[in-house]
Please model this.
Amino acid sequence: MRIFSPSRYFRSAETSRVPGGCLVYAVGDIHGRLDLLEQMHELIEADAAKSQADRTVVVYVGDYVDRGPDSSGVVELLIRQPLHRRVEHLESVHLIGNHEAFLLNFLEEPESTGVWFMNGGDATLRSYGVDPWQSTQSDNFAEDLRRSFAKRLPEAHLTFFRNLRLFHEEGDYLFVHAGVRPGVALEAQTAEDLIWIREDFLKSDEDFGRIVVHGHTPQRKPQSRANRIAIDTGAVYGGKLTALVLEGSERRFLQV
Model:
């Protein structure tokens, strides 16, 4: 089964387009910064109101949870107050990041607690009302913690995490969390690389057949390259939350 539609030919950064009549926003890594997400939604709503687009798409590139103060609030907002309820003809697309993969893996394999904690999972547990250091003397510490989290995690949130998508395509753009594996056809990319890849992708100047829009690796400001656009600007580290805006061949950014 084909994962991606086949690339027709490479479009340069200057000539890349999204479909006519379509307005696209791609939101970078949020990491529990509910305050910034709320502000970004206001910016997008106001910006979209100025467009004559027939179709508006907001793509969130993953990493909703961990490190920041309100992971549960971020997910609750995306579920209960999505932008498509506020903006006409708007579609919301939620991609999976490596931090959602951490969370889901913890629910299946609680022995992965240490790895998740080292990557900010303790902040996510606190946001769901779970003390990450409860019962540290217990012989079944990891399993006890998993049970507490599973009990506190709303069913709607679990469904949200399980239904996250690996990628999204619009015109000449491919949206993923981390990137793609150079030298591998788009239709042969693995989920692991789409969620986790870093240096091999970032260092590559390869023609990927699409302009790849991604987060995962924090930068001080958005980076536009001939073959990719990076939009993780370190919101959880005191940086900005960034959204890439695409309409026709136009490309710009919103930041809070």
